[in-house]
Write a structure and sequence with these properties.
29% of the residues lie in helices and 24% in strands. The protein is α/β, with parallel strands linked by helices and 416 residues long. It contains twelve helices and 20 strands. The mean pLDDT is 95. The strands form five sheets. It has a seven-stranded mixed β-sheet with strand order 8-7-16-17-18-15-19, with helices on both faces. Bound molecules: flavin-adenine dinucleotide (FAD).
Length: 416
């Protein structure tokens, strides 16, 4: 009988490892501490709005190869929607200007030569400066190698990097910025079509993954918080869930796919990122659909990105620690005033909800990036997964799924 693979944590990292292994005929057991899968990427019923919303609006780009492969395997790529081109409407709250950035699909970015396609107020030459980021030395910040000011920065590079890194770009790791740019902006428009889970994150990423795992003989157990490992020399020998314990067979591998603080509590000698950044989302229920495009980038506002769903308008604000202590009502009123202006809807405040994820992602700072651990551990049957492990990417869906796939590859190659 082939060994059972035990996966701790049913976020995207744990689920993608489970899906990859289950697809290869391996038997997986997933243990999730809470009553729901998805971790930081999930939908839930919100009683205040009486509707299903996401913990945060998540933007995926068409060039996110691991995410696309995961969705193909679980059969839900069509649950992501977006334009068939790399087009991004923007609105500048200070000047009232609107424009749409429209990149061509091919690898040669001739769109920057066309002033109707590029950012207003920029010249084609400005875009060449982005190459400096691609050559940045490890340990450098974006601000060390790139002039974080000027129209192109304010209207494109800054908002793009802030969203991708969830960290103020001047202080953020240039290596992580470069990794994102290399796979998207510098790889041709077909790699950055914006994609949104129109019917919710769980419907696209989570529920089909759970169904896939069960259909392939795996099992996902909820309410199972791992309290401790039992070790036998260089091997994990038991999983302690408090009320229950699982004794591992000699060759049972384990993937630990929990957030960094939980991983450090279970493996005290593990070095993990210790600084985090918040993301704030505001959701506004609408009586009738707004005419706003599915996603709008916002310049010079508290709002950074506005997402239009059929029944609500939703706002994302990254690196939002400054807003954690603002009273919720005050925040809702302030954000709605901007939203009403951007979307051209009536100013009366509709039913709203504010979701603040305090530890949304690790801070993408050079010294935090430097301490992300590799997937292999000192224990021969234990590997790590999670957006905070050393994926080379910032904490994103793509990074989380890539880490899950990597853990699955390592398990397949483990000498256990
Ligand atoms: C508000 C918000 C907006 C975001 N926007 C974007 C975006 O636009 N684009 C993008 O690409 N990414 C975005 N992200 C990042 C993305 O959501 C994460 O990178 C990804 O979901 C992390 O997945 P993970 O599996 O690594 O970790 P998690 O999702 O944290 O999963 C870990 C799981 O482990 C469980 N767990 C914890 N401890 C234990 C234990 N002891 N035993 C068992 N289980 C345990 C947790 O309950 C959780 O389910 C956003 C994140 C947030 C919070």
């Amino acid at each position: 009988m082939s060994p059972r693979i035990h996966i701790i944590g049913a976020g995207l990292a744990g689920l993608s490892a489970a899906v990859r292994l289950a697809a290869r005929g391996r038997t997986v057991s997933v243990y999730e501490a809470t009553s729901q899968a998805g971790g930081r990427c999930r939908s839930f019923h919100d009683p205040a709005l009486d509707m299903v919303i996401d913990n945060g609006n998540h933007l995926v780009l068409s060039g996110n190869a691991a995410a696309m492969s995961f969705l193909d395997t679980i059969g839900s790529r069509d649950r992501l929607r977006g334009p068939a081109t790399a087009s991004f409407p923007f609105f500048d709250l200070a000047s009232g200007e609107r424009w749409t950035l429209r990149a061509n699909d091919g690898p040669i970015p001739w769109w920057v030569l066309d002033r109707h396609r590029r950012v207003p107020g920029t010249r084609a030459w400005d875009y060449v400066s982005m190459l400096q980021l691609l050559r940045a030395p490890l340990g450098a910040t974006v601000g060390d190698v790139f002039e974080c000011s000027g129209t192109l920065y304010d209207r494109l590079i800054g908002p793009f990097l802030l969203a991708a890194l969830n960290t103020e770009p001047p202080q953020a790791s240039a290596a992580l910025a470069a990794a994102v740019i290399r796979e998207t902006l510098a790889a041709g428009g077909r790699n950055y079509h914006p994609l949104i889970a129109q019917d919710g994150l769980s419907a696209a990423f989570i529920d089909p993954a759970l169904q896939f795992i069960e259909a392939h003989g795996g099992h996902v157990a909820f309410g199972q918080r791992l309290r401790a490992f039992g070790f036998d020399g260089r091997r994990v020998a038991a999983l302690d869930f408090g009320d229950t314990a699982v004794a591992l067979d000699n060759d049972d591998p384990v993937i630990l796919a929990v957030p960094p603080a939980a991983a450090a509590a279970l493996l005290p000698q593990l070095r993990v990122p210790t600084e985090f950044r918040a993301i704030v989302n505001a959701h506004f229920k609408l009586d009738r659909p707004s005419a706003a495009p599915p996603i709008t980038g916002v310049i010079n506002g508290t709002v950074e990105w506005l997402f239009a769903f059929p029944d609500r308008l939703s706002v994302t604000i990254s690196s939002a620690d400054r807003l954690l202590d603002t009273p919720r009502e005050e925040l809702a009123v302030k954000i709605w005033a901007e939203v009403a202006n951007i979307a051209g809807v009536a100013p009366a405040l509709p039913p709203w909800q504010i979701v603040r994820e305090r530890r949304a992602t690790f801070a993408a700072l050079p010294h935090q990036n430097a301490i992300r651990p590799a997937a292999r551990t000192n224990w021969r049957n234990l590997v790590l997964a999670g957006d905070w492990t050393a994926t080379g990417l910032p904490a994103t869906i793509e990074g989380a799924i890539r880490s899950g796939f990597r853990a699955a590859e390592l398990i397949d190659g483990l000498d256990v």
